[in-house]
Design goal:
2 copies of one chain form a homodimer. Chain A is mainly α. In chain A, 54% of the residues lie in helices and 11% in strands. Chain A contains 6 helices and 3 strands, in the order H-H-E-H-H-E-E-H-H. Chain A has a 3-stranded antiparallel beta sheet with strand order 1-3-2. In chain A, a hairpin with a 5-residue loop joins strand 2 and strand 3. In chain A, helix 2 packs across helix 5. The longest helix of chain A has 19 residues. The first copy, chain A, starts with 7 loop residues before the first helix and ends in a 17-residue tail after the last helix. Chain A binds a DNA duplex (20 and 20 nucleotides) through helix 4.
Chain lengths: 130, 130
Amino acid sequence: MFARTCPSRSALEHVTGRWGSLVLGALGPGPLRFNELRRRVDGVSQKILTQTLQALERDGFVERNLISTFPLRVEYSLTPVGASVAHRLLALFAHLEAQMPAVLDAQRRYAQRADRSPTSGDVSVGPSSG
Amino acid sequence: MFARTCPSRSALEHVTGRWGSLVLGALGPGPLRFNELRRRVDGVSQKILTQTLQALERDGFVERNLISTFPLRVEYSLTPVGASVAHRLLALFAHLEAQMPAVLDAQRRYAQRADRSPTSGDVSVGPSSG
DNA sequence: CAGCATCCTTATCGATACTG
DNA sequence: CAGTATCGATAAGGATGCTG
């Protein structure tokens, strides 16, 4: 896993990538359609969501169900393997949220130890053009 | 967590980022020095490792211990919060590795459903210039 | 609604040189 | 050894227009 040549590295990158983890987490409670997913995973663009879903489908974490009505409908759901991964991701999310007070406190203490200019921290999450 | 404006998103990105997760996982068993870490997290450059460690230190997941000998020595270790996060990450890693046969199988089946050209899959992990 | 193709901007990353 | 600073290549990501 720590080796670059290990095939699990690419799967890990899909699962833990910026969007992969959020998509898997969003699908945890149940199936979602493309735009539902897009609203849930706030900030993701159509292109990136498509890419992410394809990578996750290729790895067998996500299943794509095409419903050929009009307008077109596509439902994404977790496979058993994907669900087991999502379960652990959601546990990580919850744990991380629970630790946020400690994290924010650590960030404040870190900012004081060295004189970082107030704008140099990475608080940026992109422009509001989502 | 799924909202872009939530401060936990940046922490999540550090924890689940390409290198953040591997660094936290590598520090799980015990403290490591900079270059030990660099060897363990195969493929990471000096610059990126520095960046990653600084982000993790800022969030309070990693502690940096400077030992002012000659040559200079720095030991990185997990904080209690970092350890709890790393614990869950390592569980995820192990689970992911256990699922790799299923993942590789899914990738093969996916490649057959649509005629992806054999070289278009993302197997790239960069050149061998480590 | 769901997704592809294209262009273009921006961030990521790696190689190099230098400090302590 | 550990880390900073800078530069150039590359890849990720966003905006737009088009298809079914």
